[in-house]
TrEMBL record:
It is a multi-pass membrane protein. The lineage of its organism: Bacteria, Pseudomonadati, Bacteroidota, Bacteroidia, Bacteroidales. It comes from Candidatus Bacteroides pullicola. The chain crosses the membrane at residues 36-53, 106-124, 130-152, 173-191, 197-215, 227-247. The keyword Nucleotide-binding does not apply. GO terms for molecular function: adenosylcobinamide-GDP ribazoletransferase activity; cobalamin 5'-phosphate synthase activity. Its cofactor is Mg(2+). HAMAP family: CobS (MF_00719). This is Adenosylcobinamide-GDP ribazoletransferase. Belongs to the CobS family.
Length: 248
């Protein structure tokens, strides 16, 4: 239970830390519970969208919902995407790539990466109908976090623990944690994803595996920034897959 609480503390900026003190060891096991946290962040995204759409055009409601999720997560994943773009865009060696990613300053690649990402993500509100977008928003958040959570099982951590930004390295999942993640990530797809959109579920795993291969070649593993970037890029691929299916 404390591992689950640690996940909510780590992946959101809501005051879950007031509930109980969590041992530092628990933060090594937060990634398997990432999809469970997605029920909160995805629910906030979808719920805010639906509420705002009652008084605003869907395009504005979608942008408002995006802003609320950013507030809830503290832009944790977006910071990772910016660092990932800077490191993998500007680094030419493993050491240089890791050094750039650890630098707190954002560079050109990071700025351009975030601009392109938000431009693409914000467009979903202009194409996908409200009811479908609410369901997709929840499913995309939860399912993609389940996909990307397996990064810690497939690749080693690219830095030493003391060199980590969060001063923690994630432990690989146990069988029980794999099952928890599977249930948390899969149930929304079964219950909420509209008929005919199931093919979009193939997009995140494909993008995830491509990113894993790139990370392995460039830095020999993953970092926390890689986790955040992989989540956002895989989530975006889910939306694009849905948009492509609806466009047909």
């Amino acid at each position: 239970m404390k591992r689950l609480l640690a996940a909510f503390i780590f992946f959101t900026r809501l005051p879950f830390w007031r509930i109980a003190a969590v041992p530092s060891e628990c933060f090594k096991h937060v990634v398997p519970y990432w999809p469970v946290v997605g029920w909160l962040t995805g629910g906030v995204l979808a719920g805010t969208l639906w509420l705002l759409a009652q008084i605003l055009p869907i395009q504005m409601a979608w942008i408002g919902a995006i802003l609320v999720r950013l507030l809830v997560t503290g832009c944790l994943h977006e910071d990772g995407l910016a660092d990932f773009c800077d490191g993998f865009g500007g680094g030419t060696t493993r050491e240089r790539t890791l050094a750039i990613m650890k630098d707190s300053h954002i560079g050109t690649y990071g700025v351009v990466g975030l601009i392109i990402y938000f431009l693409l993500w914000s467009q979903m509100g202009t194409v996908i109908p409200l009811a479908t977008l609410c369901a997709v928003a929840f499913c995309a958040d939860v399912y993609t976090k389940w996909c990307v959570s397996h990064l810690i099982n497939l690749l080693p951590y690219a830095r030493k623990e003391e060199e980590s930004k969060a001063k923690v390295t994630y432990s690989r999942m146990t069988g029980a944690e794999i099952l928890i993640g599977l249930l948390a990530g899969g149930i929304p797809l079964i219950l909420l994803l509209p008929a005919g959109l199931g093919w979009a579920c193939l997009c995140p795993p494909v993008v995830f595996l491509l990113l894993c291969g790139w990370m392995k070649r460039r830095i020999g593993g993953y970092t926390g920034d890689c986790c955040g970037a992989a989540f956002l890029l895989c989530e975006l691929s889910f939306y694009i897959g849905v948009m492509a299916l609806l466009w047909k």
